[in-house]
């Protein structure tokens, strides 16, 4: 089972933001990754950048524009 739980490290102890789905005394392996900034704002910035690239792309293969039916045509 993998459960990603964000936590704060304080005074030598990891304090989870929410209760993990574990029984007491369950042995676990922690992989620690520092979280910088708000994840939601980073995701929003990534989407904004991607949308900008889509709108401003000058790439044109000059190939045929296939319809949905043509794309899913089966032999």
Note down, in words, how this protein is organized.
This protein has a single domain, classed as AF2212/PG0164-like (Irregular), CATH 4.10.1150. It starts with 6 loop residues before the first strand and ends with a helix. The protein is an alpha+beta fold. Strand 1 and strand 2 (13-16) form a beta hairpin. A two-stranded antiparallel ribbon has the order 1-2. The mean pLDDT is 86. It is 29% helix and 11% strand. It has helices at residues 39-56, 68-71; strands at residues 7-10, 13-16.
Throw out a few tags for this protein.
single chain, alpha+beta, AF2212/PG0164-like, two-stranded antiparallel ribbon, 2 helices
Total number of helices? 2
Task: Kindly provide the name of the CATH class.
Answer: Few Secondary Structures
Report, as a whole number of angstroms, the end-to-end distance.
42 Å
Q: Look at the helices and sheets and give the structural class.
A: alpha+beta
How many domains?
1
Number of strands: 2
CATH architecture annotation: Irregular
Q: Identify the strand order in the major beta sheet.
A: 1-2
Instruction: State the helicity in percent bands.
Output: 25-40%
Mean model confidence by pLDDT = 86
Radius of gyration: 23 Å
Q: Kindly identify the CATH topology.
A: AF2212/PG0164-like
Shape: elongated
Low-pLDDT segments: none
Major β-sheet profile = 2 strands, antiparallel
List the secondary-structure elements in sequence, H or E: EEHH
Give the amount of beta strand, in percent: 5-15%
């Amino acid at each position: 089972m993998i459960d990603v739980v964000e936590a704060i490290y304080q005074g030598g102890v990891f304090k989870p933001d929410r209760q993990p789905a574990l029984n007491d005394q369950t042995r676990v392996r922690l992989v620690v990754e520092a979280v910088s900034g708000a994840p939601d704002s980073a995701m929003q910035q990534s989407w904004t950048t991607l949308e900008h690239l889509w709108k401003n792309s000058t790439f044109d293969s000059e190939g045929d524009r296939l319809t949905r039916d043509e794309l899913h045509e089966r032999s």
